[in-house]
Amino acid sequence: MTQPAHSTEQLETTIAARTEAFRDNFSAMEGELGKVIVGHRGTIRHTLLCLLTGGHVLLEGVPGLGKTLLVRTLGQVLDLEFSRIQFTPDLMPADIIGTNILVTDANAGRSLQFQPGPLFGNLILADEINRASPKTQSALLEAMAEKSVSVGRTTYKMAEPFFVLATQNPLEMEGTYPLPEAQLDRFAVKLRVELPSEAELLQIINRTTGTQQASPLTLVHAGTLAEMKALVRMVPVGEGLQRYIARLIMATHPESALATDMVKKHVRHGSSPRGAQSIVLMAKAMAMVQGRPNAGQADVKSIAVPALAHRIICTLEAALEGISPEAIIQDVLDRVLPGPA
Q1: What's 1-234's CATH class?
Q2: What is the pLDDT, as a whole number, of residue 274?
Q3: The pLDDT of residue 1
Q4: How far, rounded to the nearest angstrom, does the alpha carbon of residue 265 sit from its chain's CA centroid?
Q5: Average pLDDT for consecutive 10-residue bins of the chain (341 residues)?
Q6: Which regions of the chain carry the CATH code 3.40.50.300?
């Protein structure tokens, strides 16, 4: 249901009045990250957008491209409790969640006391997540999905904000476990970290092999971040744009009348409704970054690929022919037109 015109106008006026401060904070965060991270501007922007929408990010790339450095630097820029978990095949759920330990009080009485694990933080770096066993991956999934964990019969809530930024190496590398589809769907976006260009490689050499090391400033505190997240939620999305997003999601399903020929041939299962939710929220955040009080089609198209590519399951033939999920989503964007408003 659309809002009354006067209500929408009042909302846009309120958003417009707070847009400048929002953009200043966002630009400052991008700038501080850029002091340390060479290139990867799209990855940095999408990561920050995801942070402001309450989603989680999965970074994929070969070792040495700066995935871990990006997350560690983000923890320095934000005044949040930062935890790093190095995932390994022998890592157990209790190693990340925590466990009950037996303690003795001053009167020699004994009781069980919960000792929180590294998962209890605001900004969680799950490093090389696909090296952990499925059992440990499922423990992380509960925290991501429910923002709580269960130990015995007790449920413990995670702190707010709770942001998981996971890294993984390509699945063809030795010693990795594919993430289950249910866990992939919990990530708002999946970002591929590409190899640097020659110019960027020279910058990396100059920045990392000399005596001077960049030191980012802490710019945004928890209160400011909460205000920015609340403002993103206020950004209106028109009914026509909502229908366009719904049509994009439907077009990723091979049995849908909206499916493109590429989807019908190369996709087994399309995106879940969470894909639509991620697109809407990140389109709102993108509109704020661009200084606009409402989201538009350009915002949707700018984030649809990282929001949907990991949510579709392709056929074996697609992999053999070298057709990527990103190419399929781009084909959907090129061919699906908005419906009537």
Answers
A1: alpha beta
A2: 94
A3: 46
A4: 29
A5: 59 78 91 86 92 92 79 84 89 90 79 87 89 88 87 86 88 73 89 85 82 77 89 92 96 96 95 96 94 91 95 93 95 86 51
A6: 1-234
* Element counts in the chain: helices (H) and strands (E): 14, 13
Q: Would you state the torsion angle of the CA atoms of residues 121, 213, 33, 137, taken in this order, to the nearest 10 degrees?
A: -40
Q: What is the value of pTM for the model shown?
A: 0.86
Name the phi and psi angles at 82, rounded to 5. Answer: -110, 135
The β-bridge partners of 267 are 314
d(CA 250, CA 252): 5
C-alpha distance from residue 334 to each of 93, 275, 308 (Å): 43, 18, 14
Rounded (5°) CA angle 54-277-317: 110
Bridge partners of residue 223, in order along the sequence: none
Token pair for residue 326? 């990103």
Q: How far apart are CA 248 and CA 277, in angstroms?
A: 12
Alpha helices in 130-272 (DSSP H): 134-146, 181-184, 198-208, 222-234, 239-251, 261-266
3-state secondary structure of 29: helix
Q: Which CATH fold topology does 237-341 show?
A: Helicase, Ruva Protein; domain 3 (1.10.8)
